[in-house]
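The protein record quoted for completeness.
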Amino acid sequence: MTKRSFTYDLIAMGRSSIDLYSKNVGAPFIEIKSFASYVGGSPTNIAVGARRLGLRTALLTAVGEDPVGDFILNFLENEGVDTKFVPRKPASRSSAVILGIEPPDKFPLVFYRDNAADTQLTIDDVLELPLAKSRALEISGTGLSKDPARSATLFAAEQAHEADTVVFLDIDFRADQWHDPLAFGVAIRSILPLVHIAIGTEEEIKAAMLTQASQLSIEHSQISAPEVSGDLDFAIKRLIGYGLEALVVKRGDKGVSIFLNQGKVIDVPGFQVEIYNVLGAGDAFASGFIYGYLKGWDWYKAARMGNACGAILVTKPGVANFMPLEKEALQFIDERAGF
């Protein structure tokens, strides 16, 4: 059998934005005086994080014909993330996010994604991707929130799956990006048979099973996103049953639990750090975890790397611009009793 050659280790697909973070740490949102500008968007953050760890990465997002699009592309190119597949969508706008920072537990977040360019990604855009030449594809739940990006994301997962490219899904439940939280669950479950590894928080995993109301005891009228009630164990079992190799459950500073399709559960402890900003911790985790997985590490070691990247990032004021380098993450782990 001919050995495959790869141009990329990872292609990430989905949203991108300019992120404006409060420079007045601790101030209520209405009292913010100034902001610092960074680049964000979950798949974009993951592409940058994986690149900083040494992986060859490309990004499929879309930006408008506007200065914000220039800002995003300039940053990505300086980071070494391949942007050759990023189309401009003249009739749409590059999106924006505004964040307040009130540690340890208040981080009010506002999305500006009306007519966002990345929601206009099409199947034709996906056809430009060399998915058979990439070791992995990373997609996000938010990419399924609107067409044509929803169809494009499904098509990308289908093409990657057929090419034996590993498909990672960041479940990524952003309630205000959906017309109905039940639709989120429908979309997630529709793509799971094409996914190898899914990553999400406990709330996101329960949200993915929202329409199973009779078993989760959820009344549609009682759903208050992003707070989602329900049986987590049931949701995990059902999601694994869609054919996942593994479901990674993020538990904040407690670390992660990895549920394998053979029934085994691997608990991986987190790292205790002083929190500055929690936004993007999950993206940093995904970058480190994907890095370890593609290095051929075992589940525990790969998740430990992900936890380290997440812990480092929560001490920083932004996301993509502050993703750790490989040397930094490995040193962080070594200083804390290693793997």
